[in-house]
Amino acid sequence: MEPAEQLVGEFLTEYRATGGYLREHVAQLAEFALSEDEAVAEGATRAVFTSLVEPLADSFEPDAVKLYNRAFAQVIQICRRDARAAALDDQLQKFGLLSEDDLIARAETLRIVSGLTVPRGSLRRVIVLSRVTLGADVAITSVIIERLKRDFPQADIVLVGGSKVAQLFGGDPRLSFAENSYRRTGATIARLLGWIDLLECVNDLTAGLKQGEYLIVDPDTRLTQLGLLPITPAAGQAQRGPASDQPYLAAAPQRDYLFFPSREYGCGTSRSLGELTSAWLDEVFGGSATTFPRLSLSREDIETARALIDRMKHRLRPIIAINFGVGENQLKRVGGDFEASLVARLIQDGNHIVLDKGAGEDEIGRADAVIARATQIERDGRRVRAVEIDEQSLVGATGFKVTDAEILVWNGGVGMLAALIAASNLYVGYDSAGQHIAAALGVPSIDVFAGFSSPRMIERWRPTGQAETRVLAVDSSRGDRASDVVEKVLGYASELLK
Fold first, then answer.
1. Which of these, 290, 296, 258, lies nearest to 274 by C-alpha position?
2. How does pLDDT run across 391-432, given as a tens digit for each residue?
3. What is the DSSP string of 79-135?
């Protein structure tokens, strides 16, 4: 085990056993993350975000939120002293956040949910921050956007995030986009400095607007490091100069900033994040209006996907869209030959398949193995045929030669993938963006949920929508075998396709 991973393991073990906070472990972890040895720094960063932050976030418990605020505030405070993070330190000083305690005190105020104090009629622009991952943007951010559209019909709504979100929401005329990508790789300082870019983006979007004319909605995003880094000063709290020795004071709720405490809101319930987002919006904006996740795909993607699917339906077979992506988290996979066996069995049962090839060498290699096995199957007197389509092939007529194919392999962007899912009869995949996309589009889905850290994690990330879903929890430690999971998925597929 690498030293950084060992530090995280000992830190969490001690906290869970005694409630003790191993401060020196966090300090050493931050020092590793600041190493000039790139491999050491990136390894420590993975330990911070993957082994410390993610488990705390995925527990969905108030104590874990408190521990995160304490530990990550310590990491920020150590990093800001590094010469490479001078811009980070400068901006935090401008916000009056000089110490670790200042960061914690401000973050703690965000945990209190209160109603919106801005007069509705005065709002000219609402800025919504992306959750960074597409699945969370569908499950959470899209719910926020839908409510904002209803409650603030006069306001511009701007979604700030990476370029991919526009592929999922770009068909909405009420929505505009400001690109601000978060680095999910690299060292800790680089990730923290991304906040500077976010500040500049928000400053541009609020230029010329007075307080009360704009609102910023933070859905608990990594762009602000889960609320630890500010976007606007607290209401009634003057920005403190760096020479001041006054402590940072917990202020009244901010008028221009809303924070959704997604990791602890509704902690005593089993509701999904989509359901909890809707409930939080009721509490903040008043009233009661159940709001579901929703996508707005481009007309071009929708029409192209329908044309492709229509050509596959020449025998009126059910179309099942499949994505085996796990976002680099191999714990979410079912081991053995689950993927290839499942696709083979679905084809043998008479279904047609839309298979997303995924991203990265590992996912593409696994998709190729699935295709290789499937095309050895004989059906209707000949071998199963697969046709691969990408953005370039869609430009010409060759992109539509799928009439005799049982498998359509998509190797391209998420917008077209979502459109292909929308045109399918069923979606199957691991816990990732796909099942949230399917639920938002009203397509029945089967969510194969492996690698979960707690039952609460499954409850929270359950896809939410108006279509039927089945969540299949897979735990290899209790003896769940790949062959058993295949049979369960086939059973669910038979139910949902009826």
1. 290
2. 888 765 444 566 678 999 999 999 999 999 999 999 999 999
3. HHTSGGGHHHHHHHHHTT--SHHHHHHHHHHTTS-----S-GGG--EEEEE--SSHH
